Structure formats: structure tokens, C-alpha cells
Amino acid sequence: MDTALPRIISSSACGDTAAGNWLALDHQLCFALYAASLAMTKAYKPLLAPLGLTYPQYLVLLVLWEADGITVSQLGERLTLDSGTLTPLLKRLQSQGLLQRRRDEADERRVRVLLTPAGQALRAQAEAVPRAMACATACDLQQRSALAKQLHQLRQQLQAVPDAAHGVAPTF
């Protein structure tokens, strides 16, 4: 069994490799993000239940409220979801009467996602959700903005890791 870790970063980029126990759960950034994500999703649940939405469905609608009529592929890119995950979400929202999918008239290979009047009307009810979540985080606007910026930067850095680096031994 190959136990080599990918060479993603050099030892100079990862700081002091001798400090602390790197395998301690509380030292894992991935766990902190995972646990925070679970807590965030749990906090959304009672806010979205009266709207008849799950958290992923809410995310789809957030994008459509910003840009109604985008293609399924654009929606997937915006949410970083593949079609295998996105298609069931869209089917469920369509069966709820909140959106419809239509072939693009200019290019029938593309499918556009359009809000129905019910989907557009749901926006007014959903406006209370972000305010309630802002209160739940107990962070002011500046703190939330800074945290979101850091998380976007982290995602970009992780996405920039070349696939070719995976499977190469570490350089600690």
C-alpha cells in the first residue's frame, strides 16, 4: 500500500513542521470547516422549513434570484455542483412549481433554468433568512465579510493545487 502523501506544498510554505501534533483533530482546518458547515446547515434548517426548502435548494434559488434564466452548467459552476447532484435538485424544485427548465432556443444543447412566478414570489419570504442567520452568527457585517473573503481565498488556493502534484511524495 502506497502511503506517500501528495507533494502539494513545500516545507517552506507550511511553516514549522516540528511544532505540535499535526494529527490532532483540533489542529485540522478541514475538521473546523466541516463542523462549522454542519452547524451552519443545522441553523438554516428551521428557517427554510416554512419555505419548504432544503439548504441546497435554497442555494439554487439564491443564484436564480440573482440571475434568472442562466444555463444548468452556469448554475453548476456557480454552486460548484456537478450535474449528478444538481439535476435532482432542479427536478425537485420544478415539481414544487418554483422553476422550470427549458431548452435554449439559440442552442438546444443548453438548458436554461427559469423561475416561475411562485419561485419569484418565494424571494420575499426568504428575505428574512439571511437576517436571521446574521443574528445567529453573532458576527457583525465586517466580521462576516472578512470571514467570507478568507474562505473564498482558501477555496481558490485549494482549487489552484495542480492535479499533477497529487501522488508525489511530500518534501518536508
Q: What are its keywords?
A:
172 residues, mainly alpha, Arc Repressor Mutant, subunit A, two-stranded antiparallel sheet, 2 strands
Short description:
This protein has helices at residues 29-48, 55-66, 72-79, 83-95, 117-126, 128-137, 141-159; strands spanning 99-103, 111-115. By secondary structure, it is mainly alpha-helical.
Could you characterize what this model shows?
With 172 residues, this protein is mainly α. The protein has one domain: Arc Repressor Mutant, subunit A (Orthogonal Bundle). It contains 7 helices and 2 strands. The protein has a two-stranded antiparallel sheet. The longest helix is centred in the N-terminal third of the chain and has 20 residues, at 29-48. It is globular, with a radius of gyration of 20 Å. The model has no long low-confidence stretch (mean pLDDT 88).
List the helices and strands and how they pair.
Layout lengths: L28 H20 L6 H12 L5 H8 L3 H13 L3 E5 L7 E5 L1 H10 L1 H10 L3 H19 L13
Helix content: 40-55%
Q: Count of helices?
A: 7
The total number of structural domains is 1
In CATH, the topology is named: Arc Repressor Mutant, subunit A
Instruction: Please identify the top-level CATH class.
Output: Mainly Alpha
> How would you state the average pLDDT, rounded?
88
